[in-house]
Design goal:
The chain is mostly helical and about 325 residues long. It has helices at about 25-40, 80-85, 105-140, 145-155, 175-185, 200-205, 210-220, 220-230, 235-245, 250-255, 260-270, 280, 290-295; strands spanning about 65-70, 90-95, 165, 275, 310, 315. It holds the Pfam family Y_phosphatase3.
Amino acid sequence: MRYFSSFRFDFRGNGESDGKPGYANMKEDAHDIATVATHFEKKGYEVYGIIGRSRVKNMPLTTCVLTVHGINDNNVPVYNAAMYANAIPNHTLALLPDTDHNFTGHFEDVVKSSTDWTKSKMTWIVRIYFFIIITYLETLENGKQSFGNVLYHIIKEFKPDTRNSMLVHCTSGKDRTGLWCMLLLGICGVDDEVIEYALSSLGYWLSDEEVQHHGDHIKIPVEIMKSTCSAPYEAMKICLTSLKEQYGSIEMYVQTECGLSVDKINKLRQLMVVAIPFAQKQFYRGQVTASSYANIVGGDGPRSLYNPFFALNTYISY
């Protein structure tokens, strides 16, 4: 059985946290969240989710959302919670009686509402992700020769001064293509957290009617069909972890399974990774994001996750 630990923190300038309160401090909020997440990851926890209060964000319509609202909330009326419940397709609204805006004296009720809701969604979430994870791992096994052939094609057909592009695609352009791009970026030294393997979910969209039609045709539940139209972050993370546990690194997988020698891998890096001249480095500044804040080291402050000395050539068109 899986257990969940919950921890509460205040953003800077709020509650018991130091700092000055402000309005629309999105950059500072992202820093605070990343700092807290990093703190618990270093203690061995796996951060499963973030429960926010008075914080919203753009999200896919398929996202499951829980709203816990106090009946005696004098700041935000109950009808506002009802509006959210009606606007979000996969929404659950939990109304707590005799509870104010800050859930004073009812913290245990809030935790229970959250944990009960999480357990109710866990079966569906695990089934979807398990299906995708198994597919990814099987693809790495069954597609290793094809992955190697495409990597070798770059070495054979491209030179440092080549200005042509190469289109890599599969049926949907997100699973086999995404795994191959993951391998290429991993070989080039890109951190796991920076590899953009989840962006397909933003650009790949089908209407509910189309999903239902395809699902009925091949006799697959709609939930599974929707999962095939996405590239979950968690599924790829588990895939990366499994690959490294088995082979030690992406490079060793490419060597042992895809058939590329160390010399060929080094040549591939030379083609894909371009040193930035000193003069240009002065103008190259990676954007500080929530992800980059996650790599805070000691007291040195935030730094960009993107290595300022290297950039990837644009040989790939998504």
